[in-house]
Structures
1.
Amino acid sequence: MSTMIQFTSFLLSLFFFFLLLNQTNSPMVAATHPDIILKTCKRCAKGDPNLNYTLCVESLASVPKSHHSDVRGLAIVAVKLSKAKTMHAKSMVKKLLKAKPMEGYMKNCLLTCTDVYSDSISDLKDSMKAIKSGQYKDANIRISSAVDAPGNCEDSFQDGNIKSPLMEENKDVFGLAVIALGITALLG
Ligand SMILES: *[C@@H]1O[C@H](CO)[C@@H](O)[C@H](O)[C@H]1NC(C)=O
């Protein structure tokens, strides 16, 4: 009789052991953890009125890897997104420069923006390396330059009182750079 009870209790322990094992691996449990993207974007948005929380969540969530990332991984994703948007803006300038004959001043502004974007792209590349090697302060400085870039491009048009043909691009570039900076700042 007592061996029977012992055996039953052994089976029960086994049963609960596997139940527990199974649960920790189940996606249901993972889903109840607050999502790293929401959590990180919330933390960044709190410290920066320029940071667009919706854009932060949407742009990070568009990269599948983000969902299984830590904050450092998200910082790298955000820098990559910033770089891609800046490259897009730069290709836009290239098109504008080819499109038609234009006033000299406009052409100078566009050339200024090309330089600004090129510097920014190399800053973002360097910042990615810096994040990967744990040099967060260095990354911060470089991403800060990338945050300033779209404004520097816009200024050239404003100084000549002409309408910027890159307003939308600069707004997008700025929005993403602010997010990259915000997440990197969380790394310390
Ligand atoms: C924030 O981003 C969302 C999504 O891209 C956009 O629809 C919204 O206009 C942005 N808000 C501001 C204040 O720029």
2.
Amino acid sequence: MLDVVVQCDFITGHAVVQFEEAFAAFLGCECVVGVSNGLDALRLTLLALGIIPGDEVIVPVNTFIATACAVTSIGARPIFVDCREDTHLLDLDRIASAVTSRTRAVIPVHLTGHCVDMPALLELAEDHGFVVVEDAAQAHGAQIAGRAAGTWAKAGCFSFYPAKNLGACGDAGAIATNDRELASKMRCLRDYGQKAKYDHVMPGLNARLDTVQAAVLNVKLPHLSAWNQARKTLAAGYRSGLQGAGDLRLQRPAPASTHVYHLFVAETESRDRLRDHLAKQGITTGVHYPKPLHLQPAFEYLGYRRGSFPVSERLARRIISLPLCPELRADEQQRIIGAIHNFFSTF
Ligand SMILES: *Cc1c(COP(=O)(O)O)cnc(C)c1O
């Protein structure tokens, strides 16, 4: 990290190239293009693929808002699709009815750390003629059949926001692709459309991966597999420890995918009371996310209403993300599990 400063190697410096190569090797793909954050990874990918204002892009309605903002930021229209009740992932059975003559792309989100059924989605893409861009911002290292999330489709987008499975000390992101031509277009787009200094071949952005953040990521990447393993072990601890806890229901892992547990999600009718109960004992929980995107004021203009996406709406009232990070100790987890059992036996 200090090298970056001492050498004043701040803009797309050596550490950026080093990280791109290391992350490509980790994922098992041809190219990685480092960018400024996860939203820019998605936005730049859509731009590079030639998505233009008026085009429609299908996104799950239950995701972090960035997935949809990437679409609106280039003037295209997000078309929401509901999720599955068991895995909470984009429901592929609902895609065909959302496709129109303007559909250009679908962005599956590997939400909470497990993967949308990519082989099935790519088959749909072939039938309907849309391109697929993976939002893998919550799934660094998750796999289907040994192939990493983010490397199945035309491109896969990652965020290294500090709280992700691989986090920087600030904002950072990356795009994975096996298409070298697309990668070089993305490199150009992220740097003001420059092919060489002051030779601008397309109108571009400033969406470069910061070199200091790349240096941080180079230190952290070698630990990612062990951290993911720690998350899986903790998830297994919750699965066995929470059996028989009231009406608590656990998210079902997608059958074909490994799960890197960015989040550990459970469901209960008493979600808010359970959160209060745990908070009183110093146990902080989350809700990812409390409002499906169609109910956010930002997307009112799209014309959806309450009731448009019943599965996501019901989940939003019921889901709770339990504490899970690689540093969580087994005894701390036992205390959390005990507090949850205690809640359901007393109320
Ligand atoms: C975090 C996240 C993003 C956006 O990443 P930023 O780096 O915060 O821009 C996009 N999609 C999903 C699903 C995310 O969780």
3.
Amino acid sequence: MSTFALSCATCRTPAAVSDSYLYRCPSCGGVLEINYDLGSIPPFTRAELSSMVPGGLGRYQRLLPLRADTAFVSLGEGNTPLLTARRVGHEVGADRLLFKAEFCNPTGSFKDRPLSVGVNKAKEMGAQTVITSSSGNAGAAMAAYAAAAGLTAVVVVPEIVPAASVTQIAATGAKVVRTAGDVAAALRLVREASEKLGWINLATTYQSPYPTEGNKTVAYELAVQLGWRTPDWVVVPIGAGPLLAGIYRGFAELKAFGLVDRIPRLAGIQASGCAPIYESFRHGAAAVREWDRVTTMAKGIADPLRGYAEDGTYTLTLIRQSGGTAVAVDDAAILAARDRLRLEEGIFVEPTGAVALAGVLKMMEDGTASPNDEFVLMLTGHGLKGQFPAEPDRPVIEPTLEAMGKLLAL
Ligand SMILES: *Cc1c(COP(=O)(O)O)cnc(C)c1O
Ligand SMILES: [Zn+2]
């Protein structure tokens, strides 16, 4: 009956698809993957994917872990523009630099992809209350979709999350709980609440297999936007890495359908103040180890993986399978990339949203990438999310040309 099956990425044990919301492998606790019976699902065709009109991720429903008769609650997520860099690319010697404008999603970040699928799954299962921990964006997305779906949302935010993000989460009616410590500590509370209170945990780490599936729609869109050409690199800021994993899975499906000929190299970019996956990649280690002390301000990727380092190992494995790389960039480089995007390209993203550009600059510098390569950079979160550029005190002037001339030193 179900068009998909679940299996563990670590021990390969299948998990039964039931009427309850599944989290991790029942045998070993590993990350669960969703696999579709591609033989029984009518394949996507180029014509179909190309002609898909706006209308949210529901248009991909037969390749999502939802029942066919579930009416997808959408806010118009996805279908984000693919922009060509005008100045920054040439200046760094990369002529084919493209921006996937994920900040154009309804709540201002790519998290609308995983959370739209997660909330729809929770509703399909008859849930009343959903809960997540969030550095800001997942909470805003879950809150919005929960409101649209008529569910109660509880969002646990670590104290470092900026006021603008907390305001956005609360704006669509979520109950906000601020906690001491980092994202991993908040996630622990979410898991406990989910276990003891029966609320559905929609954390967008690999806590459950469903939200990650929303991320693979990035690949479907890129294939159309690039005319079925696979870019050399897709450059992705990574916390635990579900966005990267989703993009990998999406391209793998397109390849299985014969719509693209290969999976792009995936570059996972971390902040040097919290870079557990990068460290293991750099040392050629098989497994990722949790990070001790987070010192970056790039809040969207500041995940030390405490208590779930194997999730990082899963992401690392996919990076390697794609022939890709992991890169770490410091906060100064991230802020410089943010400023270049807003001042040279007119694109205003939050610091974490600029991490991919900082990563490409590093890859050009150290020779990991070639000037002839084609890059797609995931610009993941809108600048209005918080952590704004410094704003001077602005005097109020008389509304005259003379006074304006003086102010602007014309
Ligand atoms: C969540 C987030 C990321 C990291 O994505 P993961 O799938 O958690 O690795 C990157 N950028 C922004 C703006 C985010 O909100
Ligand atoms: Zn297992």
